[in-house]
Structure formats: structure tokens, C-alpha cells
Design a protein that fits this description.
Layout: E1 2-6, E2 28-31, H1 37-46, E3 51-53, E4 71-72, E5 76-80, E6 83-88, E7 91-92, E8 100-101, H2 103-111, H3 114-120, E9 125-128, H4 147-156, E10 160-163, E11 177-180, E12 183-187, E13 192-195
Parallel strand pairs: 1-2, 2-3, 3-4, 6-9, 7-8, 9-10, 10-12
Antiparallel strand pairs: 1-13, 5-6, 11-12
Helix pairs in contact: 2-4
């Protein structure tokens, strides 16, 4: 299963300089937030796969103009092709604005997902906007990560946590990939490709589809 992860900055090669066929090999697109709605709509139109997204702290405009053809997974656990995916958008609260949360509020959001996590038997990919505290975050309060995410990793041990918020263009000392207790943490700044080998989809043959994407009729122009 080939997954395209995105965040924070639109990739010119996938938009301004798009070439036919660039997205044909992807099975799923994940947006970690702070991307223009029209960019996501363009990608899902050109791809033959679903696009799932969480909100970044600069995505307040989605309220009135959400990305067309895309599916928000904030505060949901969904299963696509046997892969369990959990969405937790937003960042640490640092000034008044949408999609910002205190540590306590993020813990409450995760607590409300316990039943879904239990029903699915865990989670494979956690999609967030903010990073994990002390694992790919920054020193300034606007880019602190959540300790609640570390607690989530400690309890459920997903294969991946994919996030954005920390721009690698300006944070040259930040690694794109980190390993933590069996979880690979990926900063999806601009774009990054994940590949999950066939046979590693835990719910593939168990009929436990919690959510199913609609088929896409658009061709890859």
C-alpha cells in the first residue's frame, strides 16, 4: 500500500508543474494540515485514490470552504484497505484561533476515541498536525508538541505517526524521520511517501471495515 503524506506547504511538482500519471501509483493520500483547500481538491481529482485530512491551525477557512472530494478524519478512527487510521488535527494553543488545544483538551479528545480504538483492536497510522512532545517539535511555544501523543504511542504502538506543523525548510536541524518504541514518526512537510507491504494490513481479512471510501470515478489526467 503506497501512501502520499502531505503538510504545510504545497508541492509545486504536484500542482504548478503537475505531469499526468504522477499520482497513479498511490493508494491513499493523507494531509496533515495547513494546506490550501483547492490544492487538496486538485490532488484528489487527479488521483485514483481517496484523500483523508486533519485540520492544521491555519485551516479555519475549511469551515466555509472545505476541500471538495476529500474526507476529514479529525476525531475519528477509520479503516481503509485493512489499515486503521486515526485523525487528531490541530496544534498546542498559543493564541486565540481555531484548531488549537491545551494539553488537557487533547487528552480529552483521545479519551473519547477509546471505544473506537478498542473496537478496531488498535491503530496502525496516527495522522496529526502537531508533533509529539520532544519528538520532532520545536522550542518555541507555537510549535511545541503534545505529551498526549506520546502517551497514545506508549499505549497503542502504531506503526506510524505522521505529522506536520514544523517546517523543515526553516528547521534544518530537525530530522524528517524519528523512531520511538516501535513507532516511526514522520514529518510530512511538503510531501513524503510511506509504503506498507502487502500482508501487513491487520484487518484485511476480518471484515471489520469501520469506514469505507467512496469509489473515485475521475481519471488521472
Amino acid at each position: 500500500m503506497k501512501i502520499l503524506a502531505l503538510s504545510d506547504e504545497e508541492c509545486q511538482g504536484l500542482w504548478d508543474y503537475y505531469q499526468p500519471g504522477k499520482l497513479k501509483d498511490y493508494d491513499l493520500i493523507l494531509s496533515c494540515g495547513d494546506l490550501k483547500a483547492e490544492y487538496l481538491s486538485f490532488l484528489v481529482t487527479m488521483a485514483r485514490c481517496p484523500l483523508l485530512y486533519v485540520h492544521g491551525n491555519h485551516d479555519g477557512g475549511y469551515k466555509h470552504r472545505p476541500p471538495e472530494g476529500c474526507d476529514c478524519i479529525d476525531d475519528q478512527l477509520v479503516v481503509y484497505n485493512g489499515v486503521r487510521i486515526l485523525g487528531l488535527g490541530g496544534c498546542r494553543k498559543y493564541h486565540p484561533g481555531p484548531h488549537q488545544y491545551t494539553e488537557k483538551q487533547m487528552r480529552q479528545r483521545i479519551r473519547k476515541l477509546r471505544f473506537q480504538l478498542w473496537r478496531a483492536g488498535g491503530v496502525d497510522i496516527v495522522v496529526t498536525h502537531a508533533p509529539v512532545h520532544n519528538l520532532g517539535d520545536s522550542d518555541d511555544p507555537a510549535h511545541w508538541g503534545f505529551e498526549a501523543f506520546r502517551e497514545l504511542l506508549d499505549k497503542y504502538h502504531p506503526t506510524y505517526l505522521v505529522h506536520g506543523h514544523v517546517h523543515l525548510r526553516y528547521q534544518h536541524d530537525q530530522p524528517r524521520i524519528l523512531e520511538y518504541e516501535g513507532t516511526t514518526i514522520v514529518n510530512a512537510y511538503e510531501r513524503y511517501t510511506l509504503e506498507i507491504p502487502e500482508g501487513e494490513h491487520p484487518l484485511k481479512n476480518h471484515g471489520q471495515l469501520i469506514w469505507k471510501t467512496r469509489p473515485k470515478a475521475q481519471p488521472d489526467f
